[in-house]
Design goal:
By secondary structure, the chain is mainly beta. The protein has a 4-stranded antiparallel β-sheet, with no helix packed on it.
Length: 344
């Protein structure tokens, strides 16, 4: 049967819509989809001077059986390792890179060679993210902002040495804030094309790399440190002008939200209520100090690894939120797993 190209295109589009439905959660799928998870494992014991690098299957099985694919020896942090949310895996260079900014330390594992390293960093740079083969991070003087004004720079980092290669020329390098902007609470994402996103407190900083254009949006202008303490963390890119993050308030539950950017404003909508649908871990449902996240766009699933307990045994809760069904699965594993990412 001969079909004109225009009609064929229309029919394909209709078939795709019929197969997917009209749910807004069905999004454009990127070409690269990870078949394995990768992360680090630690006992969080001060006497333990090594980290293990683990991989396990995606989709996440009901009972994860990890494979140790490497180790980082002689890892001797001065304090407990915080934050552990800032890690990224680059498919092209086959390496996972994490930054423990409190220690001013970059940790790295190259999956092809099996080599691991821990390297000193010159500043409290944090939130590493790969874009077009380059590793970027956000650098805040002294690691935190004060006085209601945040100052920052975007630096390019060499993961093999920990040295800064360059910094972006930005249209602006400061903004006024109501909440906070601290190196230990910033997460990052990218659209894979030209944009970097950094989220700290209620502040979303957007960078167009090719032009250096900066846009900052306050996601919760009503922030009040006394009675309306809202924060966002676990930033992930979902699709054009759509981001995912965890939102938490003083009295509100922990929620997975979508941040839809429309011009110079953002619309924030709830997708999943962790506090309602998952049992609490002591005083928290998610540990915002010990956590890491990754979004699988192919399956439309948001994954979290968060510290479940420290005494008498260190354990981690692995959470898989399926945004198609709005359901979640979870399991507890021994030790602390962090820097969770996807790799091919």
């Amino acid at each position: 049967m001969k079909i004109f190209p225009q009609l064929w295109t229309l029919l394909c589009g209709l078939l795709l819509l019929a197969a997917c439905g009209s749910d807004d959660d069905i999004l454009t799928v990127p070409q690269d989809c990870g078949e394995q998870f990768i992360c680090w494992r630690s006992t969080l014991n001060t006497n333990d001077s090594s980290l293990q690098i683990l991989s396990f299957d995606n989709p996440m099985p009901a009972a994860v059986t990890p494979l140790q694919i490497g180790s980082l020896q002689a890892f001797n942090p001065l304090r407990i390792i915080l934050p552990t949310s800032n890690a990224v895996y680059d498919q092209d260079s086959e390496q996972i890179v994490g930054i423990i900014s409190r220690e001013k330390t970059l940790i790295r594992h190259h999956t092809a060679s099996g080599n691991s390293s821990a390297l000193p960093l010159p500043t409290f740079v944090t939130a590493p993210i790969f874009l077009q083969g380059n590793c970027y991070g956000i650098d805040i003087p002294n690691g935190y902002s004060s006085g209601g004004t945040a100052t920052f720079s975007i630096v390019q980092i060499d993961p093999a040495t920990g040295l800064f290669i360059d910094s972006l020329a930005l249209s602006s390098n400061s903004f006024d804030y109501r909440s906070f902007f601290h190196h230990e609470s910033i997460s990052a994402a990218t659209d894979g094309q030209d944009q970097l996103f950094f989220l700290g407190g209620t502040n979303l900083v957007m960078i167009q790399v090719s032009t250096g254009q900066v846009k900052v949006i306050d996601l919760y202008p009503n922030f009040n440190s006394s009675n309306d303490f809202v924060r966002f963390y676990g930033l992930e890119f979902r699709s054009a002008n759509r981001l995912l993050a965890v939102r938490e308030g003083s009295d509100d539950p922990s929620e997975l939200v979508e941040i839809q950017i429309v011009g110079n404003v953002a619309q924030v909508g709830s997708l999943f209520d962790f506090s309602e649908d998952l049992p609490a871990l002591g005083d928290w449902t998610l540990n915002r100090e010990f956590y890491s996240t990754v979004y699988d766009a192919c399956k439309n699933q948001y994954h979290i690894a968060t510290l479940a307990s420290l005494n008498p045994q260190t354990t981690t809760k692995l959470i898989n939120v399926d945004l198609n069904s709005r359901t979640a699965q979870q399991q507890i594993v021994a030790d602390y797993w962090f820097g969770i990412n996807l790799m091919e």
